[in-house]
Batch of 4 targets.
Target 1
Amino acid sequence: MAQLQSQGQPFEDDDAPEAPAPAPAAQANTDAIDSLLDEIDETLQVNATQFVRSFVQKGGQ
Amino acid sequence: MISTDIPAPLEVDPARRIFGLETEFGLHLDAANARAVTPEEVAGHLFHSVVAWGRSSNVFLPNASRLYIDVGAHPEYATAECDSLEDLIALDKAGERIVAALVAGGEERLRAAGVDGRIHLYKNNTDSAGNSYGCHENYLVRRRADFKAFASALLPFLVTRQIVTGAGCITRTPTGAHYSFSPRADHMWEGLSSATTRSRPMINTRDEPHANAELYRRMHVIVGDSTMAEPTTLLKVGATDLLLRVMEARVPVPDLTLAHEMQAIRDVAHDLTGAATVELADGRRLTAVEVQQTYLDAIRGHVGGIIAPTAQVDQILDLWQRGIDAVRTQDPSLVDTELDWAIKLRLLRRYQERLGCALDDPRLARLELAFHDVAPGRGLAPRLEAEGLMRRIVPEDAIERAMTTAPATTRAHLRGRFVEAALAAGRDYTVDWVHLKISGSAGRTVLLKDPFRHEDERVDALLEMLDPA
């Protein structure tokens, strides 16, 4: 059951060779993700712990 | 009195199927004094406008879908009967917007009650305390004597399907955190059962077809995750439908019966490498990738035979294959604008890089909630879609239309027309999945047992009674 416990960033492949320059489309997407994260970063940082902890629902089906 | 002039069931092409999706939304009030109100009260405020027009917090909408407050104060939306995946996705997305449209009114009423806060509605499956709620898929199947065996044969597919259609989630353990395929997997306790909240099976076998019970039965799959991206919903329901079609044609499908389903679903969920094996009843050990590939290959072999080749079948099989490849080759970029787990993982990884934090950082959990939030202006999906980071399938106007209009080719069409006409006439009425009735009149209850029938003289007669002219 080692896999269950492995701390995981399974997609960050240590053995990968030097990453080639990202293709233009991939780069554009990364830029889009960054600008989205820039936009929401402030909201996400505000009391994140309290915010997340306060979301408790009764179980449903 | 129930009308007795029930028309004979329609002859239906075996490839036609009725689908439905039920979504329980997580309801979260973010307010400094949130504890001043109970979850039930928050749900009540949220549904105030619904009760105002529908005289109940359990209503059928003009789009023929059902909106109500379910066990645990969850807003729940159940799509009307659809016989195409386009209609189903449009209606499912319309449901997100319908519940989202309740948020402003709910917050206003909360403010009036002294609670100044923001309501978030999550189309997800777990809260922060580890409670789970579901997204249930309904597939109408032809009744057969061996239903239990038929349903059991679906389990190996359902246990492993999460590697492509799982919502993905950060799982926190006492020793740290890791990313898993499905938040729902850890909450499953049985393969088949007729109970839901008590034992949480993958397939609920309660025999409630909402249709002619001599002909039909409902395959009620409750193991799936709620899905945000339209292609993920397409694959989740589409692949399951294709497998059911092959099984219903009574041709053999590979026997991949699992030795321990509950262990397997957890092992698969927590192994993002796809390399963990599950034990089959015959002693073999296969990876989830191999199990999914076996089903995909079997289904592909029937395209052109049992399965008519269509552009949509191609689309489903192509996405399915790329989803499997993404796990096998550990390259989520193959599907990271289409499949929820990969879309979300990419966002989380990037945010984690920027913050330089561990995976169990609360800001990443906060991002996860934002991914599933459908409250207006608070969720990420519209922004991801606008940036091309989350692909869409259904045209915008189809979703807009689905908010108020029922699917045209199923029983939903009759229900939608009736609800719309009764509301316009200001008449009280009673509706459920199979009945229509105008209250307080000598009118009969119309029983709609055939979910494929979308035209019915009895309903025309009812509508005439409602016509003010």
Note: Chain B touches chain A through 67 residues (CB under 8 Å).
Target 2
Amino acid sequence: MAQTVNINGKSYEIDVDGSMPLLWFLRDKLELTGTKFGCGMAVCGACTVHLDGQATRSCVIPVSVVAGKSITTIEGLSENHDHPLQKAWLKNKVPQCGYCQAGQIMNAASFLSQNPTPTPEEIDTAMQGNICRCGTYQRIKVAISEAALELGKEV
Amino acid sequence: MTIENVSRRKFIKQSGMAVGGLWLGIALPNVAMAKIGLATEAVFNPNAFIHIATNGDTLIYCGRCEMGQGISTALPSAVADELEADWSRVSIKQADGNEELYGPQATGGSASIRVMYIPMREAGAAAKAMLIAAAAKKWQVSAKDCYADSHFVINRTDNSKLSYGELASLAADMPVPENVELKAKADYKFIGKDLARHNQGDIVNGKLTYGVDTKMPGLKYAAVVHCPVFEGKLKSLDKTAALAMKGVEAVVEIPRMEVPFGSIGGVGVVADNTWTAQQAIKKLVIEWDLGPNKNYDTKAYKAQLVKNVESPAEKAAERGDIEQAFANAKHKISATYTGGHLSHSPMEPNASVVWVQENSCEVWAATQSPADIQKVLAQYLGREPKDILVHVTMAGGAFGRKFKCDYVQEAAALSKAVNAPVQLTWSREEDTRTGYYHSINAQHIEAAIDEEGNVTAWLHRAAFMPIASLFNGQVDRAPATSLSDIFNHPFGIQNVRTETGEAKRHTRIGWYRAVYAIFYGFAFGTFADEMANKVGKDTLTLLNNIYDNNKDPKQAIQVRRSKGALALAAEKSKWFSRDKLPENQGIGIAVHYSFETYVAMAVLVEVNGDDIKVLEVDCAVDCGQVLNVDSATAQMEGAVVMATALSLRTEIVFRDGAVVNSNFHNYPVLRINEMPKVRAHFIDNGDKPTGLGEPGLGPFPAALSNAVFAASGKRYRDLPFKPSTV
């Protein structure tokens, strides 16, 4: 029986060579293009998704490895695009070109789920793997801090 | 500028645009276009369209390309302000490539706002006047008795209202007013405010599609590898192993196309997904004939450029008598500055979809210049430019790289070979190794200073592969015109000579955000600091003195605005309290005028041993009227991020003709933990607005070098200061 993977709450059959990185399974097979290709070697973070809730670089993880597991992409982060991070991103007008932002948000979401009250230094450390060439870092830091406060209220 | 009511024009029906309501086309006069080198024939070429539908939905077509600079929000917001539109009713559509409809669309040189601001406002004002005229006619009152507010025209006599939707069709029958009155600054609703980008919702939801994201039935995916050395060729190719891979459809030789924006030459693989194509590329057995540039080595080349500027070179321009001034000088000072190649490295690698069919060619591309795609593909396919249909997607960063459409031409070659739509995505490695680079450069300055500390003579030699070398391989040094920014720099120095040193072409040079302003700004700003130290003045005083010595009435505005920016940067930063900084901290200041915009920066650093940490940057900007304060601030933040990396460590290195860097691990752009606190301060002087995409890069490297010197006494004269190892 073919292996399956759960993506954003839906089950998909893995009908490709198992060594294909998850990134290309998402983009070219499922046409979920919110997850971006940036470097292909896990050094830029544009392809970040959640694997069982943990931020993972989808460009280097073979799709066979995620069989039976749960993947969340930017398209599935929130039901109404109202995750506190997404709201904080809009409020602080973070994006310029926007290409890296899905990866930034996914990385930040996983980080905040583990560290709901981060210091600025902890944000720096957690977000170091995500490159933004337009230079939106200052706003990313503010947005993550604000989202952390918002998440704190929700608990 | 011409505004034409095109509501009944045939092309509206033909182009698939919605029929009905009010359509206005905006065309710039050819004089304005000629000024920025984009003259067109004397026909009505709208640069933008406004459509007000009968339900009030308002659509603004943006002809300029969006790559994150915010132009597709800024310009439409200027239309909407004059139109008295309800912003929530306005949507924005990126126009397809079509010079006949939109006029020149090439987006570069920080020109969009400079050129389009007034025309866009006038178009909005014209549409408003026509809506008011329509309402006045309906109510049988004078237009003076009506006013517009938030998508309604209101009758002053009885406060009755008609919506823009109700008026649109009637307005389409009104004449376009010959003269329109623009709003007073106090009445702006959107201009100068901080409207959010129109597409940011789709960005945070992952819905916005870029050049890499186009999908369609029957789409095939491709990867490419290029000859690593510029002007090299394919010698032999064994494609057996690649073709044996499951999912690989074709291996295609792509010869070098001998035009500046054509393919550098390589081999492409078409497969049923991108990853398979990328894997198959690795299985190709290729032998290259490396050609005439196989010995290009940037370390040796840079050393040669230094020699070329430290000895007499070819005169570019001269005024006064520098020999006499040097003979009378109290102080003489000289320094040599260098800079390396840079790669644009936008986060979205080069990508497009092209579908070449017998009678059509359709393109979906992240691009800065759809017209160049039309030209290059027309030439490649032996067709007419108008027969190449280009859909412009959002670009995931560009910085000058996506002005050149070699990647689109390659996709066309692959589509032609497999007779299907092909999406070609370059790998990061190909983007880094076979791009169009910011030029390696060297500059040597000698100055004479008199008893009172006035700079009396300036000899400036520069050597770099100019942009001109992209278009003509015989160009062996920068032409005199490329040094005019040195000669015309608003420093008040009477005796000046500029010279251009030999710099033969060995790679592809292409516009990189801010272009020559990166190294000219570095040399002027750093040398000013060095002169100040020589004569025992502070840099701000010395700079003000040099500007005050400029008595040329033609440069009075440049002098005033440069000084204004400097003063603001000093005031907003810790410049005046720099004596109180901790011992390992220092502040540096510099100003640079480029692309008609003035930016001064005060940079605060902390230096511990060899480690340089940028703490704070205060940017003082004079770009005239600011269209969107938030977006303008973002441009400063971005300029600081890019300039910090290129000042401190990023450099493209060539050895044996080929680029050694390959990806972000050895082309280490800035990361979040190194982000300084950036503050942008705008001089709100009501002058005509100018662009901001590039000018932020000019002053930063010098301000940083000056700050490090203030903190540590160590002077960095080479960009990058501490090259990362590759």
Note: The domain at 84-154 of chain A is CATH 1.10.150.120 (DNA polymerase; domain 1).
Target 3
Amino acid sequence: MRFVALLRKELRESLPWLLLAGLLLLAVGTLALRAHVPNTGVRYWQYRRGMAPGETIDTWRLLSPAKLDLPALWLSFIAPGLGLVLGVRHFWVPLFTRTWAFLLHRSVSRLTILGAKLGAMVLAFVLSVGIIWTGLYWYACRPGLFPIAEPVYVLVNGWFYIVMGMVVYLGTALSALSTTRWYTSRIFGLVFALLATLMLLSLWRPVWLLAMTALVLAMLLAQTTSAFLSREF
Amino acid sequence: MAEIVLETKGLTKYYGAQPALDHLDLRIPRGCICGFLGRNGAGKTTAIKMMLGLLEPTAGSASLLGCDSTDLTPAIRQRIGYVTEGHRLFRWMTIARLEKFQQAFFPEQWDEKFFADMIEYFELSKKQKIKHLSNGQRAQVSLALALAPNPELLIMDDPTLGLDAVIRRQFLEGMIELITRQGRTVLFSSHILADVERVADRIVVIDKGVLRADCSLEQFRASVRKVVLYFDDSVPADVELEGLLHCRRSERQLELTLVGVDEAEVAAWAKRAGTERYDFVEMNLEDQFIEFTAPPHRRRLFQWEEARP
């Protein structure tokens, strides 16, 4: 009950940003698919019926599986952006509004408070961009709409961007919790997360990608937990 | 002997080389209403935050309800009410939502009727959002939230800061409501002496992080005194009185602020200094506090000049 109360509070505080991110991805995805349906889907059925004299068709485009390329590109910015905003909302804003003392004097452990924040972050990503991204993929794979179904790696790619958003969130949290004297060293957590994201984006072997993502997440999670449990508020 | 619910032993906090609190030793028994006094920056908030485990002591320790402050368990926190400095609450919440949030952490002990009564007493509506409340109203909500779970120990950090006289009176009456419930212990910091005078039965004074007084209000009132001595000739250069806080001179008058000095000692010293004329001046608590905590040897910036003929 206590954990749920904390979780609900965190989710409610992030709600406007979740709606914004979700709606933005939905809008871009819908527009991209609508643009592809006449260009690819409709023409494919015309092609099957037989072309009119003088009519041409770009067969490469017809067979291209890249209907979700544009939304995926947007998602690669939306997810880290959402991670940054959620990190600021969960860890930086209470410093400015000075509500940490009120929150920390709850009859729960600090670990529970952190757990609620992290849980709210994961739920936020899943409920806003995660579900919409999976929905867009499902729609693009509907039989009869396009000649070629979207390959699974398109879906996985999108979820990889969402995980990158979580990496940025943890980096922002780490920077907010830092008590070092200089601002340059305070933003180390965020800089590390951004550099790690770029590094992960450049990997292409799935095994390496999985291993390195797990490593980066584990490092940031351990550092954030340690900083939160020992920090003075 | 009453059970000690709040104890600090040599509690010390340094920020870099700067001491914020220096060896604070306190023992607050159950049922005590303790006013924690000090000027701005004296170390009151630092001490309270260390007691609640929000700050790590540089040295020493604090324990609340028998539990070390660095390791306060959720069960112990449940028995402690805390009103934060500035009444910082979640601005987007309504009072009703905040009540629900707070209630989740005190499922068995939350007094719903008491909370509703307090909100009604303060003429607030549960539908109001925190961000639309004034400072004073936020203070009232904070107090209601802290009192509704029936805490054994209530710690309040400058709860009347920034409140006008009427709201302050209402707030203190709310506090008295708690005090009338038996067995409650209250520690509240303030620099408004009238508030302390109304409710506290014990005062702790800290100045620049150092404990300067820990006694009953009556004891403090009886200890800090001001005496004016009149001389026919020039005033003596030195004042050899133990417990001298401040000494102000004019041409034929000597004004002394003393702590813990009885009348016989003053009379004996006056005689040695060459006068038998002196008066004890009535001081209110605020004057006593100011004299007690003001730095010694203050220079008087402005001096009244007698009109010359």
Note: Chain B touches chain A at residues 49, 52, 54-56, 74-75, 77-78, 80, 82, 84-86, 88-92, 100-101, 104-107 (CB under 8 Å).
Target 4
Amino acid sequence: MHTETDIKTKIKNYIIESTFDDVEKIKDDTLIFEEGILDSMGLLFLIEFLQEEFNLTTTDEELVVENFQSINSMITFVESKM
Amino acid sequence: MSTIRKPFSKDILHIENIESVCNEIIEKLKNDVTRKLQRRGAVIGISGGIDSSVCMALSAKAFGSNKVTAIMLPEQDSSNDSLLLAEKLASKFNITETILEDITKALEGFECYKRRDDAIGSVINNFDPTTDKAKIEIKQDAASNLPPVFSVTVIKPNGDVNSKLLPVKEYLQIVASTNFKQRSRMSMLYYHAERLHYAVIGTPNKHEVEQGFFVKHGDGGADVMPIAHLYKTQVYQLANYLGVPQEIIDRTPTTDTYTAEQTQEDFFYQMPFEQMDLIWYGWENEYSIDEVARVMGKTSDDIQNIYKNFERKRKTTEYLRMRPIF
């Protein structure tokens, strides 16, 4: 069972490691796509990461900005699927 | 002296003096090929699509129909209509040398089809490439505030449709394997160009170049691209003026790459050309979101998201337009 802190740390570390971005730049409510931190390939790799790390599958219908726009949104999305 | 720019309108991209614009393109093409590139004619791949048709018509006017070699490069997934239309086009412009090069065997050699079908089959379990049709497409609206991602769609002979979001590994394998098609065509075009001491004419329009809807070293590999500065609706305007056969003008632009029929709108652009041209122009020329929204009959939020979508596409495809770094 993953706690909210676990999920947050794993997602944040993944984004920082995959983008080589400054840790200070990525807050929990930073708009990841709006700010250009991840692009469409970044989103695909993120979906793969969520599947491998939390064993969850994202469907076409779930691919909406509300589920992916920030680390906070992703935490809510991951928790809703567990 | 300051210039007053035109208010944004649905006619803003209409070419007023089409004859003079065509003549300028023809003169530049002639100069680029014969003076800058020092080549004596043009090789062009014709697909039966609007862009290659316009480029062929321009080349025939620039060099004369006896100095243009038109190559048709179908493969097993190409539509039969494409070949018929390409033949009709070459005949209309009296092109003396037209060559048919079926690249299916070359693609089999690269295992293009097998690699693609293996990737599709690992996402859609009961996919049978011998009977089913398949394509990849973006299902999100262009006004979505999330970057576009692809789904694979398989259509069974009985019409049943199965569609799934593509995982990254399979998406990349499908794209990489189908790109053999454009790269094989490029190799064949250069074979003929070198044999004749001609230049290869590239056919991408402005959207294809700037949004990255081309294959690096594939259809992006050419010596000169005469319509790369033109919006799609302007390409249609040229087609009408130059006398491109009406069947080609009336045909919906397709990718002609996957076994299932697929429009370019479904595959990549996410909106009709008529809208995309105008909104792209508005974005590129920094027209206000509210002004563009009012003229296009959309909400300001929609236009803002479409502007972001354009910005994202141009940024993420920068790699395709870059020359090797050294």
Note: The longest helix of chain B spans residues 168-196.
